[in-house]
């Protein structure tokens, strides 16, 4: 059972294992990504139901462009389908969708769908669902640093560069207050690495790894992992 007093505010997920799931079943990698989208849908719904404030999913990294053209364009097609088909439901659930990552470089149709989704849900006040799309932790930091350099040049910033100046210029920065750092980062498929996800924001995150391949991930497993998080002793260097 989840302890309502110890709920994480922000859960981030590295949704890994679509390819291996498909291979095990003798299916194409794209079928694996399709099944992965279905799993993601369930987790968004569940996060909204349990009253989570922020959910961030790693959907496509700055390094994933190295994959075949077929796989990359297939992933974007599936994403468009997801945001188009589920926009109404997410909107009804009062979900606010945000993008982490420079998605201006993705195919035009996918970009338009994302633009529309972000615009339509921007005033919703329920779960904030961040899709990390063409996201890289280093890219995130480089952009913030370049922005600061520009502001120093033009006189907007004087004196020392502070932690808050960097935080507020990352994708998780927001004029209405920054997205809190992830309390819990989950990675599926048995790999135990960050693969360039939220490098700055993960300073004090708790990590939970599971061998489950992403398409097999369910709300039940999600709750179990949140329970595991609730049993951790977070010290933040304080004692
Ligand atoms: C995660 O699954 C989805 C993306 C990275 C887009 P993978 O496609 O990495 O699946 P595996 O790791 O090959 O099993
Ligand atoms: C990380 O998975 C990126 C996403 C889940 C979108 P990868 O499958 O790309 O990571 P590596 O290559 O195993 O580190
Ligand atoms: Mg992988």
Would you give an account of this structure?
The chain is of the alpha/beta class and 239 residues long. Helix content is 42%, strand content 14%. The protein has helices at 18-24, 29-49, 69-92, 108-121, 137-153, 163-167, 219-230, and strands at residues 10-14, 54-61, 96-100, 128-135, 184-187, 206-209. Strands 3-4-2-1-5-6 form a 6-stranded parallel β-sheet, sandwiched between helices. Helix 4 (108-121) links the parallel strand 3 and strand 4 (128-135). The structure holds 3-methylbut-3-enyl trihydrogen diphosphate (IPE) (2 copies) and magnesium ion.
Outline of the structure:
The chain is of the alpha/beta class. It has helices spanning 18-24, 29-49, 69-92, 108-121, 137-153, 163-167, 219-230; strands at 10-14, 54-61, 96-100, 128-135, 184-187, 206-209.
List the helices and strands and how they pair.
Elements: E1 10-14, H1 18-24, H2 29-49, E2 54-61, H3 69-92, E3 96-100, H4 108-121, E4 128-135, H5 137-153, H6 163-167, E5 184-187, E6 206-209, H7 219-230
Parallel strand pairs: 1-2, 1-5, 2-4, 3-4, 5-6
The chain binds 3-methylbut-3-enyl trihydrogen diphosphate (2 copies) and magnesium ion.
């Amino acid at each position: 059972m989840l302890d309502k007093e110890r709920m994480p505010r922000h859960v981030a997920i590295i949704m890994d294992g679509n390819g291996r799931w498909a291979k095990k079943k003798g299916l194409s990698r794209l079928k694996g990504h399709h099944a992965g989208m279905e799993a993601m849908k369930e987790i968004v719904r569940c996060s909204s139901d349990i009253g989570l404030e922020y959910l961030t999913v790693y959907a496509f990294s700055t390094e994933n462009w190295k994959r075949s053209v077929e796989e990359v364009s297939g992933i974007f097609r599936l994403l468009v389908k997801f945001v188009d088909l589920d926009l109404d439901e997410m909107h009804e659930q009062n979900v606010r969708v945000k993008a982490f990552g420079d998605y201006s470089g993705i195919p035009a149709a996918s970009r338009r769908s994302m633009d529309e989704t972000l615009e339509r849900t921007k005033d919703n006040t329920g779960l904030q669902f961040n899709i990390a799309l063409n996201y890289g932790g280093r890219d995130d930091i480089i952009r913030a640093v370049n922005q600061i350099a520009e502001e120093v040049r033009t006189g907007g910033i004087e004196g020392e560069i502070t932690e808050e100046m960097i935080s507020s210029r990352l994708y998780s920065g927001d004029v209405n207050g920054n997205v809190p750092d992830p309390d819990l980062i989950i990675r599926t498929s048995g790999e135990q690495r960050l693969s360039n996800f939220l490098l700055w924001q993960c300073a004090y995150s708790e990590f939970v790894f599971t061998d489950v391949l992403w398409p097999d991930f369910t709300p039940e497993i999600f709750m179990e992992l949140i329970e595991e998080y609730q049993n951790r002793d977070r010290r933040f260097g304080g004692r």
